[in-house]
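Backbone geometry:

***
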Amino acid sequence: MIIPIHSGTTLQAVQLYFSKSIRLRMASKACQNSSPVLLPFLLPRLSLYHASKHGIKSISTPRPNRFNKGPNLPILGSSVEAALERKKYTTPLRTGALGIKKGMTAMYELETGHRYPCTIVQLDRVQVVAHKTRRRNGYFAVQVGSGWKHASNVTRPLLGHFAENKVSPKRHLVEFKVQDESGLLGIGKTIGASWFQEGQYVDARANSRGMGFEGGMKRHGFHGQPASHGVSKTHRSMGSAGQSQGGGSRVYPGKRMPGRMGGEQVTTQNVKVVKVDDEKGLLVLHGSIAGPDGCLVKLSDAIKKPWPNVPGNPSEVQLATGPTA
């Protein structure tokens, strides 16, 4: 069979001609045959001539899937038990302690003569007041109190809370989460300075010194306006707070502006305990921590360092605790 191909005939036209002729021959044979035959031209026509798509092959490693989908991955649960299990390795094994920042001093290394700053923290009648358990509260925690307060200056509900646990009224009450039931120290136990060991690392939390209403240069470190060349009495001003038309004629949320500065909790991590004086209840910490002299400091074992070697059972903690109240 000879098909005349003109100069304007394309390859696609020739292929279409052959496909039509083959389908017609199959239809004529199906009519002559009495048995039913599945005619291909009655099926949805599928294009056999796809243009190949060449993409750019990525040479970078695939990014991890944040939805936790894929083989060999743990199933994320939404229960309280699953949440506590995820936080297990970042929750301290034992309770922390409360201290009062007394000031700063300096110490010297005997070998090198290096002088480094230190912070003095004093533990004042720190006692365990109450427990929180997973069965009642959903998690394990130890409520610790420090200082002393006259009974006439304590509210009656709080006074009954102290009387129920047979503990004298405390000026400060703070809760420390623990990993499991073994970290629940006995109610009434006194935590002394020897609760922490020399050479271990702690995390110190305290409220920073309040500085009141401050400008943009002090609060955010803005450079301010030029010192000369036409600037008139606005050298320390913030400058523009936003565009007039392009941004909707408004000030965007989160814009850094003058305002109240300080008075926020600041956590100083990995603070080394240089010296422990259990008789006077003093801790000497390497470096500085947040807060003015006389502020409350919450001390706990550093979560980014190995846990210190301490007795696991609260009943075995005899050296690190003082007499019971």
Observations:
- The CA atoms of residues 12 and 282 lie 92 Å apart.
- The first strand starts at residue 97 and ends at 108.
- Residues 312-325 have pLDDT under 50 and may be disordered.
- DSSP finds five helices and twelve strands in the chain.
